[in-house]
Each structure stands twice: as C-alpha cells, then as structure tokens.
Design brief:
With 144 residues, the protein is α+β, with helices and mostly antiparallel strands. Helices cover 34% and strands 19% of the residues. It has helices spanning 3-24, 63-78, 108-118, and strands spanning 36-41, 52-53, 87-89, 123-124, 127-132, 135-142. Strands 1, 2, 3, 4, 5 and 6 form a six-stranded mixed β-sheet that branches. The protein is elongated and about 70 Å long.
Length: 144
C-alpha cells in the first residue's frame, strides 16, 4: 500500500473512531446532582389545562416519561396502600460539564420541551399534565 493511501485510510479510521467516541462519551459525563422526570398521579387538573393523551406515544422517544410512569406503576404494584399522590421517578440524568452533553444526548428537558411544542395546552409553569391509559399525571423535572 502506498504511503499516501495508508495515511488517508488511517486518517479516515481516526475520524470514525473519534465520531464513535463523541457519540458514546457524553452519556458517561456526570457532574452535579442528577435531574429526574417525576410523575405524580393527579385527580384534578387546573381549569386552564388540557392533559395530553400520551397513550399512543413511543416509549423509545420518551424514555424518561415512561420510566417515571413505570416506576410509579411498580410502586403501586408493590403496595396496595399506595396513595393517590404517589410519585415515580425516571432514571437520573446528569447535565455534564460545560453544557457539552446536552447537544449530544436526550434529556428529560427535551421531553418537556417536546410536550410544550406539541401540546401547549397541557403545560403550566414547568409542569406537564398528561393522560396515559385513562389516568392523569403531572410530570415535572426535579433535582432533589
């Protein structure tokens, strides 16, 4: 193989490895306290709010939402005495240093922003009201 060809191939491989690392690395960056998407069962919604029906949304597109709903469901299955105001939390999300991670990873903030755009009547002061399989929930990003 000619030196020029070898250098080009090595250069392309280095670029590919860097791109792969850039795609995987941000998920490992952690700094500060974690953020969670928290789901709380609500019996009544504010008068000016129309809950978004998310029954048909993809769980792959909204992993934090369905993670919080799944945690809440698991809590209800563990204890028959679970209160109506029980809460479920998604997996933690760390923002990462320097704002670098946000450009490359999916976050609970992205999900709340998506609800704000798709269902503006379901959002009130950083809280999103949703309906899933007939039950109403309030979703909000928290940092305990």
């Amino acid at each position: 193989m000619r030196p020029v060809t070898r250098n080009v191939v090595v250069g392309i491989l280095v670029v590919l490895v860097l791109l792969l690392a850039l795609g995987a690395l941000p998920s490992y960056l952690k700094s500060g306290d974690p953020y969670y998407l928290e789901a709380t069962v609500v019996t009544e919604t504010p008068a000016d709010v129309q809950p978004a029906n998310i029954t048909n949304l993809s769980q792959r597109r909204y992993p934090y939402t369905f993670g919080a709903l799944g945690a809440l469901d698991a809590l209800g299955n563990e204890s028959e005495n679970a209160s109506a105001s029980a809460t479920g939390r998604s997996e933690p999300y760390w923002r990462g240093p320097f704002g670098f991670k946000g450009a490359f990873t999916h976050s609970p903030f992205d999900e709340v922003d998506a609800y704000t755009v798709q269902y503006p009547d379901a959002v009130r002061t950083e809280q999103v009201y949703v309906s899933y399989e007939g039950t109403r929930y309030r979703l909000e990003v928290i940092q305990p």
